[in-house]
Amino acid sequence: NLLRRHPNMQGIVAGETESVLYRSNQSPSSTYHVLAFLNQLVFSSERHEVPTRLMNLYFGFFAAEVAKRKKQLNQKILLALLTGVNRAFPFAKRDENDAITEHMDQLYKLVHHGTFIVGLQSLSLLYQGN
């Protein structure tokens, strides 16, 4: 309700939520819930700052988690990240060297090694990115 009444607060709420996401004592469950909360933000075509910031957050968190956990990431967290990127993508401001281009190889790997839904979200993002 706060963000519907005061849309200018989106950047502040997203920033504070981002600081919670990068705490060192986060459990996978709390990480998933923070990402699910961020996925609920409603974007508008007039404002590009928050969706662009969230896309960078999602890809930065994705890269940090891949570096931290060499094995496999939690599929629920991956799905939340990809859902967030797919939701923010149409509203974000992009350039030629954006995060999708950087992580294209990893997105293709997710198509083959993730669950069906994660693969579908990856393909959707790759299709939007081209």
Describe the structure.
- The structure is a single chain.
- With 130 residues, the chain is mostly helical.
- Helix content is 69%, strand content 0%.
- The protein is built from 8 helices and no strands.
- The protein has helices spanning 2-5, 10-21, 28-39, 49-68, 75-88, 99-102, 104-113, 116-129.
- Helix 2 (10-21) packs antiparallel against helix 3 (28-39).
- It starts with a helix and ends with a helix.
- The mean pLDDT is 81.
In short:
With 130 residues, the chain is mainly alpha-helical. 69% of the residues lie in helices and 0% in strands.
Output the keywords.
single chain, 130 residues, mainly alpha, 69% helix, globular
* Residues in β-strands, percent: under 5%
Shape: globular
Distance between the termini: 35 Å
Number of helices: 8
Task: Describe the protein's topology.
Layout: H1 2-5, H2 10-21, H3 28-39, H4 49-68, H5 75-88, H6 99-102, H7 104-113, H8 116-129
Helix pairs in contact: 2-3, 2-4, 3-5, 4-5, 5-8, 7-8
